[in-house]
Amino acid sequence: DTAVSQTPKYLVTQMGNDKSIKCEQNLGHDTMYWYKQDSKKFLKIMFSYNNKELIINETVPNRFSPKSPDKAHLNLHINSLELGDSAVYFCASSQGRLEQFFGPGTRLTVL
Amino acid sequence: GIQVEQSPPDLILQEGANSTLRCNFSDSVNNLQWFHQNPWGQLINLFYIPSGTKQNGRLSATTVATERYSLLYISSSQTTDSGVYFCAVEGKAAGNKLTFGGGTRVLVKP
Prior knowledge:
The structure holds two protein chains of two kinds.
Chain A (H helix, E strand, L loop, with lengths): L3 E4 L2 E4 L5 E7 L5 E7 L5 E8 L2 E5 L6 E7 L2 E6 L8 E8 L6 E2 L3 E5 L1
Parallel strand pairs in A: 2-11
Antiparallel strand pairs in A: 1-3, 3-8, 4-5, 4-9, 5-6, 7-8, 9-10, 9-11
Chain B lengths: L3 E4 L2 E5 L4 E7 L3 E9 L5 E6 L3 E5 L2 E6 L4 E6 L8 E9 L7 E2 L3 E6 L1
Parallel strand pairs in B: 2-11
Antiparallel strand pairs in B: 1-3, 3-8, 4-5, 4-9, 6-7, 7-8, 9-10, 9-11
């Protein structure tokens, strides 16, 4: 019974390509997030959606576009991938401002 | 924004030893969580502890919100405790945003 799931787990692609990462939660939560973990293991929020509405948009390049088709799903589309986009991307969810639960992560490698 | 500092940055333990990890934060918080990132990269929730003390098996945590710190205690450490421990806080003014500390990398030797 996976609470927060992400696909794919690994993504290897060439510079300049466009790719998407999908996230789904079955916890019934109303808020979902994308976090990025860099090569030094530092974790930083990128976006947050509450009831399909964008509520947090950190200083992320506009090549990154989140989309929430419903409360249970939050996808991340990345255009024109760059070497510096290589990282692990984590999806998370919570009920309002309560405890956040994280997915298994998607390791993106841009060659 | 809120600053989160964790110490020590690295910790090497002999199996069976006890240890304390510290998290200092710079402002009032609405939420504080401790996570364990295992060697496979999974972020596992340990505690949701904006204030007070909680225990779960060999792990316990205490947050003193008025003094802006939290402690994570690991007792009788096992090799499976190895990994990186993160403290993350949501500042009261931050709104739905966890700010992570830099982590404490723990290695438990058999």
